[in-house]
Amino acid sequence: MVHQRVMQRRAALQQRNKGTNVDAGNSILTLDEAASGTATDKFSAGHFYQRFYESAFALLRKQPVRLLEIGVRDGSSLKVWTRYFLRYEHIYGLAYGASENYEGHLSTLERVTVFYGDQSSSESLDNLVNKSGGSFDLVIDDGSHVPWHILFSFYKLFPAVKPGGLYVVEDTETSYWNAPGASIYGYFLNNTGTGISGNVLEFFGDLTHVINGRIQNSPHLMLFSRVEHEISSIEFADNCILIRKGFNSFHRHRPYSLAHMVDVQVVEQWQAEKVAKYRTVFPALVDIEQSHRNYIPFGGDEYNQNK
């Protein structure tokens, strides 16, 4: 039924644009339409993420997209992406645990690959990046929703996002779950709640200060990794976060004419306090800190030249 409707709309668009240079093959479905007949809860059947995604993904719809989604479940959302990004190059999924029922749903789809693994495992994420080739235009974390898993995956996978690409964290609601015994998929949630350091929105909120390191006369300001220097913007939305990757380090290292207005010692004190706090709350980030010690943003020499 959905396929029939897609074909009907494409034929109508081709007729309407007959004699023009418009390519009717470009993504013609809304996210709600692409999700029709699937069990995904991302859009009007649940989270209403289309409020943010339609505009955030707009430029990608005409591109040969390489997409990774953490969390496969029954394969519904992977199917949605094949309908929405009609020019997609390849779509990857990371599924936790053993093979599930989604294999039958995806068997007829071309250029869709599912890896089995754990988003909190370096081995699983390294294997995924190495075998897929990385270079993702879009990564969507719809996995365990455990705060430290979210951050660990972000630091491991953001280097594999293309310059200008987008990294999305869904279901940030779990960072507010602070009732006794609160848990998700068997993981108990600790240090969560409004204004608490175990809340991933608090963490990414602090990364906005890292983004603005230049105007604090501290271009090398970071919490755990220079991967943070690749972030160009962070958008906080209802139950999700959208992190955009920049294109280079040039802007970060431009001289700031009012640098004398900033007390760098205060910035350094803030940095020390935040790192100490997050090391306690998210011990896995200590491993990130060590493994990324020699990381060079954007893989180029520009960072070292401005060091």
Molecular structure report:
This protein is of the alpha/beta class and 307 residues long. Helices cover 34% and strands 16% of the residues. The strands form two sheets. Strands 3-2-1-4-5-9-8 form a seven-stranded mixed beta sheet, with helices on both faces. The protein has a two-stranded antiparallel sheet with strand order 6-7. Helix 4 links the parallel strand 1 and strand 2. The longest helix has 18 residues, at 264-281. The protein is globular, with a radius of gyration of 21 Å. The termini are far apart. Mean pLDDT is 88; it is low at 9-27.
Quick overview of this protein structure:
The protein is α/β, with parallel strands linked by helices. Helix content is 34%, strand content 16%. The protein has helices at 2-16, 31-34, 50-56, 76-84, 102-106, 122-132, 147-157, 200-211, 264-281, 284-291, 302-305, and strands at 66-70, 90-95, 112-116, 136-141, 161-170, 183-184, 187-188, 231-237, 240-245.
List the helices and strands and how they pair.
Elements (H helix, E strand, L loop, with lengths): L1 H15 L14 H4 L15 H7 L9 E5 L5 H9 L5 E6 L6 H5 L5 E5 L5 H11 L3 E6 L5 H11 L3 E10 L12 E2 L2 E2 L11 H12 L19 E7 L2 E6 L18 H18 L2 H8 L10 H4 L2
Parallel strand pairs: 1-2, 1-4, 2-3, 4-5
Antiparallel strand pairs: 5-9, 6-7, 8-9
Q: Counting H and I runs of at least 4 residues, what is the number of helices? A: 11
The residue fraction in helices comes out at 25-40%
Number of strands: 9
Order of helices and strands: HHHEHEHEHEHEEEHEEHHH
Shape: globular
Structural class: alpha/beta
Reported for the largest beta sheet, the result is:
7 strands, mixed
Low-confidence runs of at least 5 consecutive residues: 9-27
β content, as a range?
15-25%
Radius of gyration: 21 Å
| Distance separating the two termini | 58 Å
Give the averaged pLDDT, no decimals.
88
Strand arrangement in the largest pleated sheet? 3-2-1-4-5-9-8
